[in-house]
Amino acid sequence: MIEIGKCGKPHGLNGTLKCQIDERYLDDVLQAKAIFIGVGANPIPYFIESAREGNSFLVKLEDVNSKEDAETLAHKPIFLREEDLMEHEEEEEDEFSDDRYEKWIGYTIIDEEMGLTGKIEQILSLPGHFTALIMHDEKEVLIPLHESLIVRINKEKKELVFNLPSGLLNL
Known about the structure:
The chain has 171 residues and is mainly β. The chain folds into two domains: 2-93, Beta Barrel (Elongation Factor Tu (Ef-tu), domain 3), CATH 2.40.30; 102-170, SH3 type barrels (Roll), CATH 2.30.30. Helix content is 10%, strand content 45%. It has three helices and twelve strands, in the order ββαβββαβαββββββ. The strands form two sheets. It has a six-stranded antiparallel barrel. The chain has a six-stranded mixed β-sheet with strand order 10-9-8-7-12-11, with no helix packed on it. The N and C termini lie far apart (47 Å).
């Protein structure tokens, strides 16, 4: 078992938990069917009903259906089995390098509201942040690559799902 993060406070009334997940394991959690939570000597498995990233990483677990249920898991460590982890060596090396987003060239950007937006043609390094250059409606558009805008990453389909600010594509 590998510790990948920690449960935070409940989010809402239906048992959803805010979690702090080590960034390099976010994709692993999104692909996992279950996580293990350290409640005593041995971590206990919990099946994931849903998981999403945004400003916070939110996880809804099976059989955790109220704020009170979620409070019993608050501040407990989260684990994944080693066999549930993807290869991380390359990502760890790239974590602080300027080309960490280069792997997304060719990925399709999808906006949650508008749907298909465009394919990433190029990654640009601007002062303080990175942007993806896409073609949308026959014009070049720069999309900021900021974690608060990225909802999920699907490596198999090569898709990045964003929650883009309204009007961004019309600039």
